[in-house]
Amino acid sequence: MSILLRAHMFGELVKAVGGVDAAAAAIEAAVGHTVSRGTISKVQNGHAEVPYAWASALENASGRYPFLNMRSREVTGGPARSELACHLDMLREATEGVTALAEFEANPDDPQAVARAYAELADVHDLTAGAMARLKAMMGVRKGDAA
Question: Are 3 and 47 in contact (CB under 8 A)?
């Protein structure tokens, strides 16, 4: 997984607990020593790896568990818990779709390349359609209404 994705997830946890100072307090309480606010900022910006103990401390403090859920999906090979917790699956499928399209563009007369590109884009469509439907429902948009 990309360091930038982990940094983004960590940054969202920092926001969820109330900012860098609150995150530092939560982390310090969990690990038993002081942590640098500058290092927290470096981790948020993708300039340093996310320490596992820090991610766990912020997950516990916020009640949100993106690292735990992501790791669980990696270990079990299972799908995301909901249409809205599928960002890693969506990223993987989108990457496969782009790769299949590039193969098709390189070999436009190859029927297998056409079929592969179509299949990969169908996977992307299915994931995004599910996420969009769930978001619409959360916004109170009924089927047939403008989005």
Answer: no
